[in-house]
Design goal:
493 residues; alpha+beta; six-stranded antiparallel beta sheet; 19 helices; 45% helix; globular
């Protein structure tokens, strides 16, 4: 029955032969649905009742391949912590195929943790329940925040153990993305000096993500500009919410501008521009404050990969358009960031000096060790005339007074009414985020006790991040300082 209810149309497999390896998932002993993302399934036009049953578990675990699906392991390269790895690829993931959702948007359906592939590099290709649920949870929060992201359609127990530092219950994630094209995908063929393949790949990416550029006389540089613009917007969103990706390798940077691969990611508590949580980022390459610089570095790698497909002129003339885009990237990023931070500050108009006001606020948060999320949220109360909640998150509340006077003088130059301003600020400043200690608590309960209740409660909070709920007060509370001080995240591979 499933075969007739999911309509695949697999352009990547059909149009890009030679850029993947056909492969089948490794069967698992006793798949059982852990969680289904019903709203996403409906948006994709999938048969929810069947997905909730045994047939759905068989499909979502990889035990059953549906008619029309063409499971493939995609090949790609990548710069990992600045060092080029010429052959990576899907080592524990398979692209099942593509569906067109109710809005006419093409979406990939892929399995993660579905067993080894030719690109596994000695790994077992499996996933444990903790990392699977982390990706589900963080992706749904990002979606609720309006931040472009891959999302989880489902998580399935496999009924077997995977072995890391200790045996862990295994799971498979079904991931949905606008596509799984990465900067590293282009890098793979550029490194092999195959400009024809690079051109095929980029032309496909244009058709899929930027079809308005298909007939543009300078389509490759304009496509690069569009990719850069999406990344500028995406990373600005990350910075505004205090998100640290943790492993911004070029194979984890999507052409679509979606956040992908929630491995060693984390959220800041006390504001610290140098915050790093990933256990493998020993040099702080992917620290919070470095993210805008790293995405530009990644884009430079993409520019180098696609420049050879330019057919006319010298090498210098081929590279020049891409250099211009890279040179203007910091300003583009800053425009997105400043527009977002104006909204967080409650500013409805633009004035020269708004960036100074914003940066002085951030410097104050840093100097006083204030919780990033709560400080922004309680600024909404301050906009309504109640400073007490905001003062409570500062070690020295008196330090606020001068900045608040400057901020209120700025607000007074606008005609927006207090109620409208506060409502707008509450729509962009979340009360609930996936606080690191709560994430670990939920994952530990699922891993050690097969208890999903903490996961479900946290998911409820972070998928309605702006809506205050007294029953969820604990999820707005920062971790004790001693917990945050030693917190580390891991890739989960």
């Amino acid at each position: 029955m499933m075969d007739t209810l999911i309509q695949f149309d697999n352009t990547y497999a059909r149009e890009l032969e030679g850029m993947y390896v056909p492969w089948q998932p490794t069967p698992v002993p006793s798949p059982k649905l852990l969680r289904l993302n019903t709203d996403l399934g409906i948006q994709l036009g999938l048969p929810i009742e069947i997905l909730n049953g045994p047939a759905g578990s068989a499909f979502l675990s990889g035990n059953e391949t549906l008619v029309g699906a063409t499971p493939i392991a995609q090949v790609y390269a990548g710069h990992q912590f600045g060092h080029f790895a010429p052959r990576l690829g899907d080592g524990r993931a398979l692209l099942l195929g593509e569906v067109v959702d109710k809005d006419g948007l093409r979406r990939d359906l892929a399995l993660k943790g579905s067993g080894p592939t030719p690109f596994s590099r000695g790994g077992d290709g499996k996933a444990a329940v903790g990392p699977v649920l982390r990706e589900y949870l963080i992706g749904e929060f990002m979606h609720a925040m309006g931040i472009p992201t891959t999302r989880a359609l489902a998580a399935v127990w496999t009924g077997e153990s995977v072995f890391r530092e200790r045996p862990l219950p295994g799971a498979v994630l079904t991931r949905v993305a606008a596509s799984h094209l990465r900067i590293g995908t282009v890098e793979f063929f550029a490194a092999r000096e195959e400009p024809h393949q690079v051109q095929r790949l980029v032309d496909y990416a244009i058709r899929r993500h930027d079809p308005q550029l298909a007939d543009h006389p300078h389509r490759y540089q304009e496509w690069f500009r569009a990719v850069a613009d999406r990344q500028a917007s995406l990373v600005a969103h990350w910075m505004l919410v205090g998100f640290i990706h943790g492993v911004m390798n070029t194979d984890n940077t999507t052409i679509s501008g979606e956040t992908i691969d929630y491995g060693p990611c984390a959220f800041m508590e006390a504001y610290d521009p140098h915050a790093v949580f990933s256990s493998i980022d020993t040099q702080g390459r992917y620290a919070y404050h470095n993210q805008p610089h790293i995405i530009r570095w990644n884009l430079a790698r993409l520019a180098g990969a696609i420049a050879p497909v330019m057919t006319n002129g010298s090498r210098e003339s081929k590279v020049a358009p891409f250099l211009e885009i890279l040179e203007t990237f910091p300003a583009r990023y800053y425009d997105y960031w400043l527009a977002g931070i104006r909204k967080k500050l409650g500013l409805a108009t633009t004035e020269e000096g708004d960036d100074v006001l914003a940066n002085e606020w951030l410097a104050l948060l840093h100097a006083r060790g204030a919780d990033y999320t709560l400080a922004w949220r309680y600024l909404v109360d301050a906009a309504e005339g109640n400073d007490r909640p905001l003062q409570a998150v500062f070690r020295e509340p008196s330090a606020l007074a001068m900045w608040l006077r400057q901020w209120r003088m700025r607000l007074d130059r606008e005609s927006l009414k207090t109620e409208a301003r506060a409502a707008a600020m509450r729509r962009v400043n979340p009360l609930y985020i996936p606080r690191n200690h709560r994430v670990e608590e939920a994952l530990a309960a699922a891993t050690d006790n097969t208890d999903l209740a903490p996961f479900e409660r946290l998911l409820k909070a972070v998928t309605r991040p702006f809506d205050e709920d007294p029953e969820l007060d604990a999820y707005a509370t920062p971790a004790p300082a001693e917990v945050t001080a030693c917190y580390q995240t891991f890739c989960g591979t």
